[in-house]
Amino acid sequence: INSKDPIMGWTAANVVKREPGQPDNARQVREIYRSHEAAVSDSKPLVQETAEMGAPLEQDVPYVHSDTIRWRVVHALGAFPDDDTVTLLLQALEKDRYHWARYGAARSLVEIAARTDNEKIRSRIIPNLAGQIATLSRGDYNSRRIVDEIERTVQYKDAAGNWEQVAQALLEAIKKARATADSGPDGKKNI
């Protein structure tokens, strides 16, 4: 997952997601996210210095690589339905500065909720996602794409238990948020 080679990194992320193995693997994957989250914070002075030297950012600045790794990690974490993973994914959705990491966190949260029979996990994920949908719907283009991805992922095949019924809360939140976003302050439809 940590590889600078995108093929190796994404292959590793997909292997972890499809074959999660031991519960301790989730802890190790979460630690990768946290280490790259810290790298972003620590690299801001380096970004300015690198830009002043005229170096291409996508190759020479650590946080660009860290953004992609965090995206890979949240993608892989969709295979781990545990409280610590859900906490990290909810935080990533709300606070990660990289759109694709937020997008991947949303998708992984829906996948976890769809696949688990654990009502405690579902009851943490669904209200949190539903609560963020209105804000995301009013956000920039990338934020609205996250809502689109939540809507697509809700249609999860082979979901556990009463998923269709549970997923209705997300679909209703999306419908309501879009209706509100399409209306002006006077309640009339924006054109």
Q: Report the mean per-residue pLDDT as an integer.
A: 85
Amino- and carboxy-terminal Cα gap: 44 Å
What percentage of residues falls in helices of 4 or more residues? over 70%
Count of separate DSSP helical elements? 10
Task: Specify the overall morphology.
Answer: globular
Tell me the fraction of residues in β-strands, as a range: under 5%
User: Any idea what the radius of gyration is?
Assistant: 18 Å
Order of helices and strands: HHHHHHHHHH
Identify low-pLDDT runs: 45-61
Helix/strand-derived category reads mainly alpha
Mind summarizing the main beta sheet?
none
Using DSSP, what is the number of strands?
A: 0
Q: Summarize this, please?
A:
By secondary structure, this protein is an all-alpha fold. The chain has helices spanning 6-18, 23-42, 44-53, 57-60, 62-76, 83-95, 99-115, 119-137, 141-154, 163-181.
Spell out the key features of this protein.
75% helix; 10 helices; globular; mainly alpha; 191 residues
Please explain how this structure is put together.
With 191 residues, this protein is mainly α. The chain has ten helices and no strands. The protein is globular. The termini are far apart. The model is unreliable at 45-61 (pLDDT under 50).
Summarize the helices and strands and which ones pair or pack:
Blueprint: H1 6-18, H2 23-42, H3 44-53, H4 57-60, H5 62-76, H6 83-95, H7 99-115, H8 119-137, H9 141-154, H10 163-181
